[in-house]
Amino acid sequence: MSNLTLYSVSFDLVDAVLSAIGSVLPAPLNAWITNADLITGLAVLVFAALLLAASMLNTIMLIWWERKLLGRFMDRRGAMHVGYAGLLQNFADGFKLFRKTTVRPREADPLGFVSGPTAYMVTSMILFGVLPISSGWNSGALPLSLLLALAIFSFAPLFIFVSAWSSNNKYSLMGGMRSAAQMIAYEVPLLLAVVAVVIVSGSFDLTTIVYEQQNYWFWGPLFVALLVFVAGMLAEMERIPFDLPEAEAELVEGWNTEYGGMLFAFFMLADYLRALIGSILVVLLFLGGWTMPTWVPSVATSFPLAGIFWFMLKTYLVFAVFIWIRASLPRVRTDQLLRVGWNRMIPLSLLSVFLAAALVTVKCLPVFGCVPSPGI
Amino acid sequence: MAEVSEPEPRNENPVLWVARPMATAARQFAKSLFRPSTIVYPYERLEDPRFRDRLEVASGKPFGVGHVWDNYRGVHALNIATCISCNLCAFSCPDICIEMVTVPGGDPKHPKKCPEIDYGKCSYCGFCSDACPEGCLTMTTRYELSTPKRSDMVYSPQKLYDVFRSKLPMNPIRLARPENEDAILLDPPLCIGCNACARDCPTECITMLDVPKPEAKPGEKLPKRIWKEPVINDSDCVRCGTCISVCPKECLFWGTRK
Fold first, then answer.
1. Which candidate in A75, A227, A230 is best for mutational testing of the B interface (most B CBs within 10 A)?
2. Which residues of A touch B38 (CB under 8 A)?
3. Does residue B158 sit in the same domain as residue B88?
4. Do A75 and B22 touch (CB under 8 A)?
5. Residues B203 and B245 occupy one common structural domain
6. Count: domains in chain B
7. Do B28 and A80 touch (CB under 8 A)?
8. B206 pairs with which residues across the strands?
9. Domain locations along chain A
C-alpha cells in the first residue's frame, strides 16, 4: 500500500487500458499503442486530470462546508434541499453559472476582461501540482516547492488588478486598487512568517518540512508565526474581516462587479481554490501535514489512504477556523488594515523569525513536546 | 460646525477585540450545532409535536386546545351531512367569495346547496363559521394553498368535505354557537302570506296558518293578499335567517320574543 502513489495509479490505469486496446489491434498499431513513451505521456495527463478533478471537487466541497458552518454560526442550516444536506447545491449553482451568458460591458477591454479571471484561476490551480498531499502523492520532490508555491500564490493581485482595470468601472478599479494594496501589504509578513518555519525545518521543500514535523508540529514553538501566517492568509484570501476589495456595502461587488456567468464562476472558484491552498499551507507548515502524533493508535494511521484522510481532515478544520473568524469579526477599514499590516504584522513576523532562530540556537525544540512519531 | 468624535477608549486589551466576538460566535455555534432555530419547512412544520416547547416559548401560553394553534383560521372544513343549506355563510361573507352550489343527493325539488369557497378572494375573517348555525362550516389549521392554477383555489363542497374528513384540528371558538339567540319576529300588517319563508326554511319549522280575513269597513280597501301568516317553531329554528332574506315585503325581522 505504501508504494501506491497517484502517479503509479494513473500509470497502471493507462497501461491496463492501452494493453487491452493493443491486444485486439493488428500488428503495427499494436506496437504503437503499447509504446512506453505513449503510456508515460498519457499517464502524466491522467495524473494531471485526477489532480485537477480532486482539487475542484474539494473546492466545491469547501464552499459547501463554508455554507453549512456559517449557517450554524448564524443559527440556521445552510443549503438543505439539493442532495443530502445540500451537498449538490453548489454543483447546481455551478451548472447555472455555466449556462449563463457572460455580458461584457461595451467600454471594457476585451483582452484583460477575459484573460484576468482566467489567469487568476489557472495560477491558483497550478499550485496543486506543487503542494504535497501525502507521502508519494505529489508529482515529485521539488527542492524549493514552498518558495514556488508562495511565488505563484502572489501572482493574484496582478490579475485582479488587470481584470478590475479592464472592467472600466470605478468600483471595480477601487476594489482592484484595494486588493493590490492589501495583498502587497500582507505578502511581506506572510513570507517572514514562512522564514521562521524555514529556519526551524532547514528546508524549502514542503515534503521535508512535513517530515521535520514528525517529532513535533511547528504550531507550538512557532505560535507567533502561525498567528501572523493565518492573519496574512486571511488578507491574501480576501476573506472577512479583510474582504475590503469586495466590500459589498461600499463597492458594489469590488473587482468582480462587472463579471457574470462563467467568468464570475472563475473568480468564485479561484477564491475558494486560494482558500483551500491557504488552509493546506497552514496544515503543511504548522500542523504536521499528513503525519499524526504517536499517541494516536496505529489503527487510525495505518488504513489505506490514512495520510490523505488526516490531511484533508486537518485542512477542513483549518478552514473551519477561517469560517469561525468570518462569522465573528466585522470588516476593518482600509487604513486600519494597512496600518495593522505594516505596523503590527511585520514587527510580529520579525519577532517570530527571531524566536525561531533562538529556538534553533539553544536547541530547546523538544521542550514543546512532542514525542517522536513515525511518519505515515 | 465640525463634528468632534470622541476618542476611542484605549484601556481595553486589543486581543479582546478579536477574542470576545469569537467567543460569542463559538457559543452560538455550540448552541445551534445540533438544533438550529430554523425549521426546514416543507419537511418539518411548526405544529409538529417536537416543536411544542418552542411554541410555548413563543406564545407565552401553554400548548393546548384553543391557545396557540387551534384558533388558527385556515382552510374551512365543511360537514356536508349536517349542512342545512341555510345560506348564512354566503350572506355573512364580506368578500362575496362563498357561493351556494348544488350538491348531489337530496330532494330533487329542493336541491341541497352547500358553500363553495373561492380562496382567491377569501380573507379568512371567519364570519361564515361564526354565522353557521349548525357548526358544520368551521376553520381548520391548514394553511397550504399554493397551486399552479387559479381555478384550483375554488374549493367545491366536496373538497371542503375532504378537508373535514382529514381530521385537522378544528377551531373550537368557531364551533361554538353565538350566544345571543334571537328569535325571528313577524310584522303582521306587512305580511302578504306569500309562503316564501315556509318554502325556503331549511328546517321546515315555519307553518303557514290561516288568519281571519277582517271585515272591510266602509270606505276601506282590504289589501290583496293571501290570508295566511307564518308561525315559526322556535325549537326547530336554527336562526339561519333565510326567511328574513327571502321575504319580499321585509316583514320578518330579528327580535327578542317576549
1. A75
2. 71, 75-77
3. yes
4. no
5. yes
6. 2
7. no
8. B232
9. 100-368
Measured CA to CA, the distance from residue B113 to residue B100 in angstroms comes to: 5
The pLDDT tens digits of the residues spanning A111-120 come to: 888 888 899 8
Residues B150 and B190 placed together within one structural domain of the fold: no
CATH number of the CATH domain containing B164: 3.30.70.3270
Nearest chain B alpha carbon to A81: B40
The string of pLDDT tens digits covering residues A346-366 is 898 999 888 888 877 776 555
Banded model confidence at residue A185, pLDDT cuts 50, 70, 90: confident
Do B147 and B206 fall into the same domain?
no
User: Does B237 fall in a domain?
Assistant: yes
B171 occurs within a structural domain: yes
Nearest partner of A66 among A324, A256, A306, A370, judged by Cα: A324
Q: Residues B88, B152: one domain?
A: yes
Query: What DSSP assignment string belongs to B165-200?
Result: HTTPPB-HHHHSPPS--PEEEE-GGG-----HHHHH
In this structure, what C-alpha cell is assigned to residue A178?
484595494
Is A77 in contact with B25 (Cβ distance < 8 A)? no
pLDDT tens digit string along A332-341? 888 888 888 8
Chain A residues 302-331 with a CB less than 8 Å from chain B: 324-325, 327-330
Query: What 8-state DSSP symbol labels residue B79?
Result: -
B188 and B169 co-located in one domain: no
- Identity of the residue numbered A330: P
Q: Quick one: B85 and B166 in the same domain?
A: yes
Tell me, yes or no, whether B91 and B159 share the same domain: yes
ipTM of predicted assembly, 2 dp: 0.72
Contact A123, A152 (CB under 8 A): yes
Within-domain flag for B15: no
The minimal CB distance from A77 to the residues B21, B31, B40 is found for B40
The more confident residue out of A312 and B35 is A312
Helix, strand, coil percent values for chain B (each to nearest 5): 25, 15, 60
Is B203 part of a structural domain of the chain?
yes
Q: What is the pTM of this model?
A: 0.72
**Residue A80: closest C-alpha in chain B:** B40
Where in the sequence is the domain holding B239, given as residue range(s)? 183-213+225-255
Chain B hits for A75, CB-CB cut-off 8 Å, are: 28, 31-32, 36-38
B residues 20..59 contacting A (CB < 8 A): 21-22, 24-26, 28-29, 31-33, 36-38, 40
A vs B, Cβ pairs < 8 A, gives 42
Tell me the per-residue pLDDT of B30-57, one tens digit each, with 9 for 90 and over: 888 887 778 887 787 776 767 766 665 5
The C-alpha cell of A57 is what?
471537487
Residue B10 has, within 13 A of its CA and on its CB side, a CA count of 2
Our CA-based measurement puts residue A370 at a distance from the nearest CA of chain B, in whole angstroms, of 27
